[in-house]
Amino acid sequence: xxxxxxxxxxxxxxxxxxxxxxxxxxxxxxxxxxxxxxxxxxxxxxxxxxxxxxxxxxxxxxxxxxxxxxxxxxxxxxxxxxxxxxxxxxxxxxxxxxxxxxxxxxxxxxxxxxxxxxxxxxxxxxxxxxxxxxxxxxxxxxxxxxxxxxxxxxxxxxxxxxxxxxxxxxxxxxxxxxxxxxxxxxxxxxxxxxxxxxxxxxxxxxxxxxxxxxxxxxxxxxxxxxxxxxxxxxxxxxxxxxxxxxxxxxxxxxxxxxxxxxxxxxxxxx
Length: 270
Fold this sequence. Notes:
This protein is mainly alpha-helical. It is 76% helix and 0% strand.
């Protein structure tokens, strides 16, 4: 009995240490976002003179709501585009053993994203798409599409093909079997791949730095507004960082069980 007690005590102590280590940067960021420049640079973590003035300045002075809308448009657009193209691709690769196509798609995920920046820039310049949502959405799909495809390949392989064959026997077309049988059974996998694709797009900085314009600037790129040649507005920077981080944390907390179940289901083959 005592052995079990000590094992559980050690287990929870280790869990608390890990949680504290991962939470500390966010707690520091959150507390710093409610301090002025002098309080932040003093190095004192806890201060009772907190204020929300930094958040007010972020929205009123720097027009952060516009950047939030831009990030939402790009993130939802790239996620939707990745699903529209990735789901049929994953189905074809899984059912018809098109491993060559799968390797081509995987290569886009393996190669560092910075390798595509110059080709993207040249291509979109020729097409006069620099500074548009289209350029950002297509560039973000470079990672979102492989995410969706490779997560869904292993997930679709766990769905018995006999279900589709039965649907075809009953008069359903191949496309109908895909939309009526495979997609409904792939809910957790679709949720998982969608969330991962959305989070990548929401946090992406590199493609937005090169391809975005003043009208389409996204949240990570807007952080530059708080940096100047002579100083850094640490209060505004911390408030902006919290605004970028909180939506991702909320999504992770509410849908983590879908992510776990989707990844686990895709990892098992029956």
